[in-house]
Design brief:
The protein has no helices and 14 strands. By secondary structure, the protein is an all-beta fold. Strands 1-2-3-4-5-8-9-12-13-14 form a ten-stranded antiparallel sheet, with no helix packed on it. Strands 6-7 form a two-stranded antiparallel ribbon.
Amino acid sequence: KYGITIGKSTGVSEGGFINIDYDIGDMHIGITYINNKVKGHNKTKWYGTGYADIDYSTILTFTEYRHQFDNGLFNRSGATLGYTTVKDFEEHGSQYDVHVKSFSMNTASVFTDINYLHKSVFGKTLFTAGVDYFNTFDDNRTTFEDVLKYDYKRDEIVTNFTLSHRYKFLYFTAKLNSNNMNSYELGFRINL
């Protein structure tokens, strides 16, 4: 079973994505491409809050295994690999405006979650609680104004909760996590 998802983001994050995935028994694999612009804010202790429009693109692959426990209760566990490039940008608004050179990074994650799917005459409701481990690998150095160099390393555990409801082809999803990187989606699905 194949799937294709195309989406657009608006607001603080503007851009789009395309995802292609495939199910093989209990295995789910896929690839996602994201091209986005984020309105970034960098609050500092001494220099005020800077802001920048940050253009980036990401290619991400994933593999997950699903295990059905009981009626409606199941687990998903898997891993991702990603490559992100960030274009040059200018940070403005603090005491020192800076130019940041383009950079790229490689990322990996492993995840597991527990899910409950409830079906009724009003559609399908999915509750999810999970944990993710994120890590960057190889050299992730960013250069500011050709002088300051910053090495970025992510080694982090994030917990999350998702509530999703689908009625026929309409859906709503709310995703909350321990990093306060929350998202809300309202849309429609077309099954081919």
